Structures are given as structure tokens and as C-alpha cells.
Amino acid sequence: MAYLNEIWFILVAVLFVGFFFLEGFDFGVGMSMQLLGKDAHERRILINTIGPFWDANEVWLITAGGAIFAAFPHWYATMFSGYYIPFTVLLLALIGRGVAFEFRGKVEKASWIKTWDWVIFFGSLLPPFLLGVLFTSILRGMPIDQSMNMYAGFTDFVNLYSVIGGVAVTVLCLLHGLIFVTLRTEGDLRNRARKLGQRVLLIALPVLVVFVGVSILETDIYTVRPIITIPLTVLIVVCYVAALFFMRKERDGWTFLFTGAGIMVTVTMLFTALFPRVMISSINHAFDLTIQNAASGSYSLTVMTIVAISLLPFVLGYQIWSYYVFRKRVSGKEPMTY
């Protein structure tokens, strides 16, 4: 059942699309605390805009990792062993961020609150940057041998292309988060978030152009499947230009829709460019990991497909319900949990 390999590749892609859309604005709000919040009270308002959602949004990343482990164990083994240090830093950042959300409001002391605010900031800054570095380095190719072992040095992880990719993902998440703030807050804080969002968007557009230019030089994104990736790239630009238009019209809902669409199309394009590969070898393309040679057996994929189809409606239903329940804006006048 070769089609199951394709289904699970698509499912992994969908999970990452959902993660970057949902956790993207979480990261953005976390970064905006030090850029937007004038005092501890405003920063607390910002935290409470994502308070009911951040942990559920992170589940998309955990589920994506679990799906890779179950459906493509060789991909999981190569990637997680090869990226051991970046993943460790990523994990520590996410742990610190989660702890900070819970501990920040436990002690009414300025130094205590300030410390955890900075933990939230860096815990929101590092993950999108590291994930951007990870995905762009995969697209560029890593030193993977015929045994599917990856022997990567520092410059394989950190180079001009991966840094640009990390910066691009970080900026897009910050922008997405600022627009989310406009949907969840009121008054001056909301207006300042919108103004800062405009400035960030004007930075994001040239960053995206640079990323596309370097991608043409460093990867085969636009040669393997140009009939799809080129239109998707144009669509990404259209999304952010439309976001700028609606932002200036103060149509925050439409702006959020287009910043989110921009992120979703970007991740979709990256997975489209990879397919049917899951990791590219810079040593020899014969050593590439694909959805065929990295996959589990057909029986395992069949069972997992049945389980996924059975549970997915409940997971999506719960997430939609939680956003509906906590749909009201945070003014700072009501009791705040975080």
C-alpha cells in the first residue's frame, strides 16, 4: 500500500502547517512582550491572550514528532540523532517557556516577574529560529551516508541560508503574534500592536525576498517541482501584501487570516519541494531519505491510519471549542489566570 506512505507524509505536513499557524502566534505574542508591553500589567495581558491556548498548540509539534516516529522511523532516527543539540536547545526553550507561564504570577515581586518575562521572551524567540534553521538545512541537504547516519558539523547547521531561514520564520511568527494581539486586546495596546505589526511586515517582505533568492542558489526548491513551488511563492507574497493592505484599513480579522495563510502556504511549499524526500543528502542523492525507504511497514501504517481517522475529529473539535470558549478580548480588568 504505497499510497499510505504518501498519506502519512501529507499528514506530517498538515501537522506542521497547523503547528506553525497556531503556535506561530503564540511565539509572536511571547516575543512581543518585551517589544510591546510597557509594564508588567501589559505584559500580563499579553500572556493571557494566549494563556488558554499555548499548551494545546504545542501538541501539534509533539504529534508531528510522534507521527514521524511511527510512520517514518528512519527519518526520525536520522533527524533526531543528527539534530541532537539543536533539538535539546529547542526542548529546553519550550520547557522554560511553559514553566514561566505558570510561575510568573506566583510571586508579586518585580525581579521575579521580570526574570520570567525574559524567559518567556527567549523561550518564544529560540524555537521558531531553530525550527527555521532545521527546515532550511534539510532543504539544503545534510551529510547523510548510505546507512542513513548524519554526520553534521557546525557549519552544516549554521550557515548563511539556515540563518536567513531562521530569521524569516522568527519574523513571520512575530508578525502573526502581533496581529493576534489586535484580535485579543483593546485600546492603546491594540493600536500599538497594529502599528508595530506594520513595521514588522515591512521588514518581513524583504526578508522573504532574500530567502527566496538564496533558496534558488542553495536548494533545488524551484527546479524539482517549479510548476507548484513558483505559484506558491507568488501566493505567499500576495498573502503578505494583502495583510499589509488590510492592516492599514484596520481590518484585523482579515489581516490575521492572511498572515496565517502566508505561514501555512510557506510550510506547504517546503514540504512540496521535499516530496517524495524527507531528508536530502549532501553527499549523494542516492542516500536521500524518502517516503519509501524511511517508512514503516504497510501493516503499521494501516493501523495508524485507522487510529488517526478515529481520533482526529475529537482533537480538532476540542481545539475549536476551546477557541470558542475563550474568544473574548482580554482587557486587563477581569481576573487573569497567568
UniProtKB/TrEMBL annotation:
<feature type="transmembrane region" description="Helical">
    <location>
        <begin position="223"/>
        <end position="247"/>
    </location>
</feature>
<dbReference type="GO" id="GO:0005886">
    <property type="term" value="C:plasma membrane"/>
</dbReference>
<keyword id="KW-1133">Transmembrane helix</keyword>
<feature type="transmembrane region" description="Helical">
    <location>
        <begin position="6"/>
        <end position="25"/>
    </location>
</feature>
<comment type="similarity">
    <text>Belongs to the cytochrome ubiquinol oxidase subunit 2 family.</text>
</comment>
<keyword id="KW-0479">Metal-binding</keyword>
<dbReference type="GO" id="GO:0016682">
    <property type="term" value="F:oxidoreductase activity, acting on diphenols and related substances as donors, oxygen as acceptor"/>
</dbReference>
<keyword id="KW-1003">Cell membrane</keyword>
<dbReference type="GO" id="GO:0046872">
    <property type="term" value="F:metal ion binding"/>
</dbReference>
<keyword id="KW-0249">Electron transport</keyword>
<dbReference type="GO" id="GO:0070069">
    <property type="term" value="C:cytochrome complex"/>
</dbReference>
<dbReference type="Pfam" id="PF02322">
    <property type="entry name" value="Cyt_bd_oxida_II"/>
</dbReference>
<dbReference type="InterPro" id="IPR003317">
    <property type="entry name" value="Cyt-d_oxidase_su2"/>
</dbReference>
<feature type="transmembrane region" description="Helical">
    <location>
        <begin position="254"/>
        <end position="279"/>
    </location>
</feature>
<keyword id="KW-0408">Iron</keyword>
<feature type="transmembrane region" description="Helical">
    <location>
        <begin position="299"/>
        <end position="326"/>
    </location>
</feature>
<protein>
    <submittedName>
        <fullName>Cytochrome d ubiquinol oxidase subunit II</fullName>
    </submittedName>
</protein>
<keyword id="KW-0472">Membrane</keyword>
<feature type="transmembrane region" description="Helical">
    <location>
        <begin position="83"/>
        <end position="103"/>
    </location>
</feature>
<dbReference type="GO" id="GO:0019646">
    <property type="term" value="P:aerobic electron transport chain"/>
</dbReference>
<keyword id="KW-0349">Heme</keyword>
<keyword id="KW-0813">Transport</keyword>
<keyword id="KW-0812">Transmembrane</keyword>
<feature type="transmembrane region" description="Helical">
    <location>
        <begin position="200"/>
        <end position="217"/>
    </location>
</feature>
<feature type="transmembrane region" description="Helical">
    <location>
        <begin position="158"/>
        <end position="179"/>
    </location>
</feature>
<feature type="transmembrane region" description="Helical">
    <location>
        <begin position="115"/>
        <end position="138"/>
    </location>
</feature>
<dbReference type="GO" id="GO:0009055">
    <property type="term" value="F:electron transfer activity"/>
</dbReference>
